[in-house]
Amino acid sequence: MNAAHPSEHTSFRTLGALDRWIDDAQNGLVTVFGRPPAERPNPGDAEPDVVLDEAGRRHAAGLMRINHVGEVCAQALYFGQAAVARDPDTRAHLLEAAQEETDHLAWCADRLEELDSRPSLLNPLWYAGSHAIGVLAGLRGDGWNLGFVVETERQVEAHLEDHLETLPAEDLRSRAILKVMKEDEARHADNAEAAGARLLPRPVAGVMTLASKVMKAVAYRI
After folding, report:
1. Which pTM does this prediction carry?
2. Core-most of 57, 70, 173, 198, by most CB within 10 Å?
């Protein structure tokens, strides 16, 4: 049997990498400028759409805009990590989590529309920054990849708990969405830990917390 020419192997690997980056770019465009559909039913649909007073509506919309931005960032982080993941199992884990985040993205977009509001105008910026962080994390290795998943999901889980406490009590549709999201985020973190996530250094986790606070303060209004 004749051995394959080295250039043939190189072409195959390059094509695979190119396909991966094309998929990554397409995912980014759809996330930021499109309306990716959810695979699961919206949990809020089972709840009555109560008319909120103006202050309550604005507050609920601000919180749901933050959550929508959080899902844009999660998509960017996971797609960036998956683009450079070395292990196929790690890549599959990241893309599976990203699909559930797509559900969250769609649900938050639906609720913002119901609240006569809109997503953040800075979504392209949020996506680009998070994607860069994802790529850098992925280049450090799969253990760091998964470590970023754990830290990201734990922080998101915490702010969802805060939002559940501060949402208008009568906003049952937003509340139902956030409860399912919180359960999903906790499961993503648990799965990443079980898959061998590395504990991030405290300074890195601190920077992520600070960046999250800035994002939430800005996205609430813009």
Report:
1. 0.82
2. 70
